[in-house]
Amino acid sequence: MHSHIGTAAELPVQTFSAIVGDIYQCALDPTGWSKLLEHICQAVGGPAGSIGVFHPGELRSVIEAETGTDPEWQRRLHEEYAAIGPFVAAPLHFQAGDILSVGDVIDYDEFVDGRFYKEWVAPQGWSDSILSILVKSPDHLAFLGVSLVERATAEHKARVAAFVPHLARAIRISHLLGFTAAKAADLEAAVAGLMTGMILVDAEFAVRGINPAAERLIGEVAGLSIHDHRLRVPATDAGAQLSAAVTAGAEGRLDRAGATILFSGAAGGLGLLVHVIPLAKPRARSNEQAVAAIFLKNPAAPSQPPLEAFVQRFALTPSETRVLLAIMEGKSPRDIAASQGVGMPTVRTHLHRLYDKTGTSGQADIVRLVASVSGTI
Q: pLDDT higher for 254 or 95?
């Protein structure tokens, strides 16, 4: 099922070498990614492709580079069809380096009978696509996708595989498609998809990096704020603990620097759970160097179930996982059939297999099981 070929045996040497050189150039100069992607698609034999980042916790993808697809079709993909695509469950089943065609994740005849194929794939003149997982972590997955006008072959996969290790290295070099050399911006790009808030501060409490989740959460604690790019802490016991932990990190007293603190909310009641993690011992007390990472989490907010572990524990297939994801969104069997463009018998088959594998007896039962794994019930 998976291809891990790391050579360019099926490609002319000059073509392969030129593309690999351009890959590493794009790690330093992001303006070339779309043109590079066009050359990769030509080498593979596909008319269109994309490089993007998938965020499992939010079930969404961000396309960083694209070629060959009309912007209107891209808009329709994001607004209407992304959630029912054949690869929606792939991040929960496969690892970095895996190279997949549609037939590897779903029965191809079922795919052709579905809405995604009939309404988005076929009208563009395509028949199949290849997804290669470039980089994978618990918080994101970077991928290369190539659309094909014919069914994917071993040669198509081999050509994609030739570029995968180089693309993965280039993405790491460019800090997960952040495409910037500024340290704070690189951090923000790398952690932007985290549901947990994260702030980097230096010895003087100046903010050296912050992700969108932290910007949303920080207002939930009375007296905790960012003013003139500096973290302000409340004059409370919790605030004093936070200040002491950051100062200990700045002074290299790593045994005293870590802390877990519960702050009261801005309107009273439960606020935020704050973890202070010291960074490596600083070479010198400097405003240019972050000394602590501060993680913010709302303890009352439900956590994202560890679906990948759940999928592996019960040996779910990608088709079964697609149905499970739809159930978790509150869809009925009829809704699932309509959204995926398949018949009710197909949905019922997947549901019965889900119930058999998990020892559950209905949708509410399986939702409770998934939720209980993460302690949300």
A: 95
